[in-house]
């Protein structure tokens, strides 16, 4: 296959838009097909129900977006987003205990998902090089077993399916992608899929932060302890633009999530520390509770197919979706868009080009896949369908013990924390946790004493009308 000239991107969400932007740098024509009508502002829409829930964009993803679309971070900050210095601006109870607030070595963008998507989409579409067919649904692929030559689309409002020609089709329709069914329509067999499903669910409610809370109030997170072998319960209070806090309560299979308003605080009180329920208690609820049950890790392996049609790629959540607790989906999609850009900047697709490009996209999802998988298999009642040896072979318990040991050190040792945070934020490959530099840090790095209280500055708690405990400034080193 020579370099394609006409691409159709299926889905105009986060991955679809970044992919379209990258394609438009190399190809003559790029069309995005999106089922929803895309709002002209930071508004919710039907096709993106996850946007009701907390989202962070790690620095790895934010940096790529900034390179592709200079000025994005400034625009987000101007609209009220926070750039949270990790771990400086965060009060976290991890499975191992309270995390010291070391000086920030990386960051995550924190704001509502509609704001994030709108700022990025607006910058991409203002380039004028991408056509968007909104209110249009993809219903199938056009082509045969060896080559895709377009898609079948129809208006959501009604009407017969019609073909849309393209020599490159990229599926970015998200976690609920129908790619398997569309491939069957071409006579191809199913793509192998792995699933690690801890039964993660979210219940989220927006609050107005107390009057006078400044833009420096930290993000707060209370995590579950997987080592208890009981269903996990998490809670976060994340600052959002407009003086709001988005509170998400999360559980793994076996712990029912709150659906009614009176259960919300009750669930927060069951977390391993009452800080989330204390903060809810001083804030004013301004939205209903929104549920989500899209928390399974699921990964396709198109690169393993004996036959894969030329001109078809899969990216974003369609390719691999992760337990959202780790905040990896959007950064992974941005990293895949960057990988696609690199591939397209090469000579041309050439012989076997589609498979080579798809392999490059699939490599990007491997680190977040294994990180999430290794954590989630430890939750009681986790359902697993995978033959990934890293999750199933006899050494797995050893790997889990090492990962727990790193987590124990990382909350109290600044240099260990720096490397672990860099891996968690997808800035550094996971294999760095096994190299000699890191192993020697585990021996030599300072080990601060265990924290017994959440590491707030006293003035932070006073800001929200809560009483600081006696030794409240402990643990704030950043
Ligand atoms: C509760 C929750 C919390 C999350 N938190 C985080 C987080 O903190 N950080 C993070 O990085 N990631 C997080 N994620 C993951 C993140 O939301 C996804 O990784 C990201 O949205 C993936 O983008 P996407 O474009 O692949 O899919 P989507 O954003 O789902 O977009 C898919 C698009 O395709 C369209 N579409 C679907 N089918 C069709 C069709 N047949 N025809 C036309 N259009 C179609 C949809 O309308 C939609 O616009 C979270 C996910 C969930 C569920």
UniProtKB/TrEMBL annotation:
Pfam families recorded: FAD_binding_3
Region feature Disordered, mapped onto this chain: 459-478
Record InterPro entries: FAD-bd (IPR002938), FAD/NAD-bd_sf (IPR036188)
Keywords: Monooxygenase, Oxidoreductase
Domain FAD-binding: 5-357
GO molecular function: monooxygenase activity
Protein name: FAD-dependent monooxygenase
Organism, scientific name: Streptomyces lonegramiae
